[in-house]
Design brief:
The protein is α+β, with helices and mostly antiparallel strands and 306 residues long. Helix content is 22%, strand content 19%. It is built from six helices and 17 strands. A hairpin with a 5-residue loop joins β7 and β8. The longest helix has 16 residues. The protein is globular, with a radius of gyration of 22 Å.
Length: 306
């Protein structure tokens, strides 16, 4: 596994019909709290030196610290507010949004081609939403138009970080809600227009790391285990593994993630509600909604109508 960037990709079509991307940034700008040798060892190695930190805590010997960096905090720190701090303090030592910024060349797993003028080829695109139910752990679009439909229908349950009621369903197509400066219907059409004769379209996947059981416990451990899902995606791109075709896309065969069948359950009643919600949502785009997305929604509706 190698890294090109962590945030932005500028993409273009090569003469060979493949999609290529470059990272237009010189490095990484990441949230510090929660970053540790357990959760992200490559990041920790990257920021060992020549790194700018903002709003983190300082140790007695002038090093940095934040919540989640170690199993237990140091006995004494200077907090992000510049005052003495110890484990009995009521406030956090580092600001919850404290950051680090560092050059990409210090990353121990940087891709050798990260400075290539042509960029690196893109074989797959991953969308995702934060859902406690309904959406499976991972699925693959059956074709490119279906993949665009998955991106256009992205939803997440709101958290404390978002305004409004916690747990309410929030539509965020392509994760572009705060960033798209023109009509989202035209944005959907732009994605659909990329499929042309002679182009090798990237496979599109949709992930949901946040499924919960009836007791509210996460079904998927996340972190390092996510590489198993990425491995499955790569094997699908390379035609190395079979998949089960369902009404919602291709799902892994049961043997791939055998530890918990709940990760891929298709709740028919839940999907009926999902279709109703999407119908109402897509209606807001009026005549700007591209016909292929209307067709994809109708296919989904028909699959769960009986």
């Amino acid at each position: 596994v190698e890294c090109v960037g962590d945030d932005i990709a500028w993409m273009h079509w090569g003469k060979d019909g493949r999609l290529y991307a470059i990272n237009p940034e010189a490095g990484f700008f990441g949230v510090a709290p929660g970053t540790s040798l357990k959760t992200n060892p490559s990041a920790m190695k990257t920021i060992e030196k020549n790194t700018i930190f903002t709003n983190v805590a300082l140790t007695e010997d002038g090093d940095v610290w934040w919540e989640g960096m170690t199993d237990s905090p140091p006995n004494h720190l200077i907090s992000w507010k510049g005052v003495a701090w110890d484990p009995s303090s009521s406030e956090k030592a580092a600001h919850p949004n404290s950051r680090f910024t560092v050059g990409v060349d210090q990353c121990p797993v940087v891709d050798p081609e990260y400075l290539a003028a042509s960029g690196v080829p893109i074989s797959g695109i991953i969308f995702g939403g934060r859902r406690s139910h309904t959406m499976p752990l991972v699925r693959q679009a059956v074709n490119y138009a279906h993949g665009v439909f998955l991106g256009a229908s992205m939803t997440s349950e709101t958290t404390a970080a978002a305004k409004g009621e916690v747990g309410k369903l929030r539509h965020d197509p392509f994760s572009m809600l705060p960033f798209c400066g023109y009509h989202m219907g035209d944005y959907f059409a732009h994605w659909l227009s990329q499929e042309k004769e002679g182009r090798k379209m990237p496979e599109i996947f949709y992930v949901n790391w946040f499924l919960k059981d009836s007791a509210g416990k996460f079904l998927w451990p996340g972190f390092g285990d996510n590489i198993r899902v990425i491995k499955w995606m790569c094997e699908r791109i390379d035609y190395k593994v079979q998949a089960e075709k369902t009404a919602i896309g291709y799902l892994p065969e049961k043997s791939a993630f055998a530890e918990n069948k709940q990760l891929f359950e298709i709740d028919k009643e839940a999907w009926k509600k999902e279709v109703q919600d999407l119908e109402s949502y897509f209606h807001t785009f009026g005549e700007k909604l591209p016909q292929p997305l209307t067709a994809e929604l109708q296919l989904l509706k028909t699959a769960f109508s009986n």
